[in-house]
Amino acid sequence: MIDFAPAVRFALLLIxxxxxxxxxxxxxxxxxxxxVRIGLSILLAVALLxxxxxxxxxPPVALALAVARELAIGLALGMAVRALIAGAEFAGHxxxxxxxxxxxxxxxxxxxxxxxxxxxxxxxxxxxxVFAIDGHHALVRTMSASYxxxxxxxxxxxxxxxxxxxxxxxxxxxxxxxxxLPVMAALLIVELALGLVSRAAPAINLFVVATPVxxxxxLLVLASVLALAPGLVARFSGTALTMGARTAAxxx
Length: 252
What we know:
Distance between the termini: 36 Å
Number of strands: 0
Radius of gyration: 23 Å
Number of helices: 9
Order of helices and strands: HHHHHHHHH
């Protein structure tokens, strides 16, 4: 008779790193080929095999709970980096909306595009910063350390989960607003100046004049503050990983 216990135990160990690879943008998430994600998940599981204790065969109900718990922990860790990237993209959405570059994506529902160039720029920049500061290594180390405090098996959901999720969502808005604030402040001054001009000279076609002025000023301010974005993203990366670990710890 074939003993499937070793295969089941390895599959159980594979769930947490597999979910991390599937959800974290630094490992490709949904954009990486399926074979690459499967191979990376297996490599991480093999690397963890000597140091992680996997329980013996569990009853069906306990096994299902353990699988759900492993999925939740891996997702919580992966969402930490995703929140960081989402915060940078949110800053791009705010900036693009203020400048006017997101106008096409708002009024053109045919192709379903809800992104703009600046949001993609900020998102890719944040992703490069995570790689530059070895954030992907820190994420793997956090996952490896999580087995000491949250071993494989049954657990419970701590009431702190709701607070951790709210804090992670708050990180998206805080990072996004801080990245977009210089452009938003500059364009607010531009809007006030254009309002005064329209009052002083009502004959001026403000719609024709305001769009290029807003675009030029916004791009100039964006170019001047873009160099500060990597430092801000790097400063928030440690906070994001801490929040991800705190969210995962709610499934002790």
